[in-house]
Amino acid sequence: MYFADVLRETVGRRGANIAVAAPGRLQTYAELGERAYRLANALTDLGLRPGDRVGMLSDNSIHVPEQIAALAVAGLVRAPLYTQNTAATNTYLARNTGMSVILVEAKYAAALAAELTEPDDARLVLVDDGTGASVSGALDYEAVIAAASTSEPPVHTDVTSPHIIRFSAGTTGRPKGIVHSAQGLQAIANELFTFIDPPTEEDVFLAAGTLSHATGYYVWPLIAAGARITVMPQFDPTTFLSLVESERATLTMAVPTMIQVVASVAAAAERPYDVSSMRAIYYGASPITDATLRAGLELFGPIMYQVYGQSEAVPSTFLAPSEHHLEGEFAGRLRSAGRPTVNSEITIRDGERVLPVGTIGEICVKTPGAMLGIWGDDAATAARFTADGAVRSRDVGHFDEHGFLYLDARLEDVIISGGYNVYPAEIENALAEHPAISEAAVVGIPHEKWGETVAAVVILEPGTVAGEDELIDWARARVGPVRKPTVVVIADEPLPKNAVGKIPRAAVRERYWPGTPDIVGA
């Protein structure tokens, strides 16, 4: 059963259920369904046909789930743009993928309209966000919807054809459009709920992360269940805790930095927040430190699920709550990304050659949630697949003897110092164990003798003190003299993060060692 069937079934059986809760507003499934059908028909009336691309640019809002549903039932290809991008970058993405229309929140419309100056550029449909912003020539979202039919569009699409384009974060160049089919998106949703009870109409999903990113993967399983989606327009830790308490939220998706600040706010609160309703917290997108995980477990209990994957192949691995060991023989597994999901096959390779357990190489993934390819770039698509159809992740890692996958680096981030491969994650983990360090990033910088040397940038915990020599000695004792950093910068500003909360090492290198070239490892 695919998305048009899912929407029809939920509206018919659970139309009175609250579908979306936003600040000051509620929307039932009956209302979501009617507005989704109207929007689908409106876009068809504008001349769009199945397979045409439609951009979405907004914060989380009550409108986003209805837009996701509308594009699916109309057979249109959803292409979420990122509010963190510049208008120029979003214009490039719109042109690169040939978007016909962009559904844009009013606050972002003027900057985008100033860039969209070509005759064939996408038309803007302006979604009112209460800011009063307007753009000449843009269509009004509510007017477009009001004028359209409420009938379900008579569209039958190929579930193996493009359904969504997810844009890469662009940390190694211009963002690329990663294409998934409806079949692939449903496979992703199925994998995400393999290890826990699937959602029911009693569940409340707190959309704290942006629905244009990984949080969006959960929308269709939630619609299928008739569950409530509570959206946060912007993430704020105090609001997050208040909503868990007031909405009795049961599910959420977070990146480690979100868990860190939520736990910190909860620990400092005058009274404890009641978070007992929460039954599962998915986290991923970047490594989590022991301190953050410990704080999260103390606050929420043993309900943490780590998910590893990329837009190209997701999810690939899963680390269940029972495998989150803080102490004892298996504590080292917290450094892992877990084990392959039920329908994923992961190999470690050197080119096409599969490597044995314990050997470091490129992580290659076969999964039903794999991408169709990279939009408009056959050569780049071919380069990302092995001869037998596995996605080349560009991550470097290894398996242990128990089948747990460990990430050692991005291929682009491997440091080659004096002929030795140095994997930044190993040094970052060693530094993160220091009680004064809250965050660390490791990069390679040029060295006259060794070619490259290891450099680290660290953020200290508030109220703590640590010196460069102390931290170098700390790392030397844990990773040895070859892989220790020779330079440590103690930063007084947050480390740069991309749209999905990861620390792009290229941006760290450019901030602290400007002009240093990216170096691709072996």
Identify the notable features of this structure and list them briefly:
ANL_N_sf, GMP Synthetase, Chain A, domain 3, 9-stranded mixed beta sheet, alpha/beta, 522 residues, 5-stranded parallel beta sheet, medium-chain fatty acid-CoA ligase activity, ligase
Outline of the structure:
Among the domains are: 3-181, Rossmann fold (3-Layer(aba) Sandwich); 416-512, ANL, C-terminal domain (GMP Synthetase, Chain A, domain 3). 30% of the residues lie in helices and 26% in strands. It has 15 helices and 27 strands.
Structural topology:
Blueprint: H1 3-14, E1 18-22, E2 25-28, H2 29-45, E3 53-57, H3 63-73, E4 77-80, H4 87-97, E5 99-105, H5 106-115, E6 123-127, E7 139-140, H6 141-146, E8 162-167, E9 177-181, H7 182-192, E10 204-207, H8 219-225, E11 228-231, H9 237-247, E12 251-254, H10 256-268, E13 280-284, H11 290-300, E14 304-310, E15 313-319, E16 339-340, E17 345-350, E18 353-354, E19 361-366, E20 373-374, H12 378-383, E21 391-399, E22 405-410, E23 415-417, E24 420-422, H13 424-432, E25 437-447, E26 451-460, H14 468-479, E27 487-490, H15 505-512
Parallel strand pairs: 1-11, 3-4, 3-5, 5-6, 6-7, 10-11, 10-12, 12-13, 13-14, 26-27
Antiparallel strand pairs: 1-2, 8-9, 9-20, 14-15, 15-16, 17-18, 17-19, 19-21, 21-22, 23-24, 25-26
Helix pairs in contact: 1-2, 1-8, 2-3, 4-5, 9-10, 10-11, 13-14
